[in-house]
Amino acid sequence: TTFSARRxxxxxxxxxxxxxxxxxxxxxxxxxxxxxxDYQQIQDTHKLYKQxxxxxxxxxxxxxxxxxxxxxKLRELSETIKTCKSAGNADESxxxxxxxxxxxxxxxxxxxxxxxxxxxxxxxxxxxxxxxxVTLLSKQAKFAYKDEYEKFKLYLTIILVIVSFTxxxxxxxxxxxxxxxxxxxxxxxxLTIRESILINNGSRIKGWWVFHHYISTFLSGVMLTWPDDLxxxxxxxxxxxxxxxxxxxxxxxxxYQSGCLYRLRALGERHTMDLTVEGFQSWMWRGxxxxxxxxxxxxxxxxxxxxxxxxxxxxxxxxxxxxPMCGLTFFALFLGNFSTTLRVVHQKFQKQKxxxxxx
Length: 359
Known about the structure:
This protein is mainly α. 79% of the residues lie in helices and 0% in strands.
């Protein structure tokens, strides 16, 4: 066509302008026709992609609906079985226990299935991201995002050690301290968002180890707003030493937990989406108990920070609301971290005793 010929002339002119090249118009026209064929193939492939994508969206909705109905029926059946168990005889007890075990197994299987299906965001993700689908559809994408999350924690932990060391020993300026506190706010806030996305994709991090990042975000925000006065200077060095120690312990936890998780995943004893945490969990019992003294020391340091701040509120010069607020927040972190770690250790001891009795 005339239009194709004109486009071919332009292409030929562009190529012939390159140094040391001489291309005829017929060669340019041939190349243009090949590009047109490739473009048609791209259009066909993209059309097929959109059609398959629509099919996948329909299948996702269908699968989610089927799972929701199945889970509802399982809940109703579970309640009925409990009633039968309380009124049943010894002959039916074994069958009832077996059905209850199968129901629990199915619930775990549904959890694995739902990790690959779109789900409604929780309140926090809805406020931050809106109603955006954050479900990753392949195991490779999920693992890559989890791995990037772990690296983010590692790199920021190292940066926090360096910045807190600089604030303590090299640069005694409130502006530099503000950089550290802003970095802490951004770090913990980013962790809460990433962890919420990972939970939507099947990670089993839950309970206190998620909630304490929200409290840490709040604490860092309060520290950021604390003006440079006598009370701040009295607490400054203690807080910087604590930040250095906490970052050091987090680095130890990441280094040893990641290795332990890798071995347990290879043995099939842990889920592929399990994460390193800033605390102690039951799966760490083998080989990671040496971390407990470091953790308990950090917990009691949080308690010491709270006591120090509460004592500072008695000073006549203490007028800032940040002092009692930081004291309450440090005390809340101590209670949560200490009680959760203690509960995990107690549960592990109880399980070991039960295993010995059964043996």
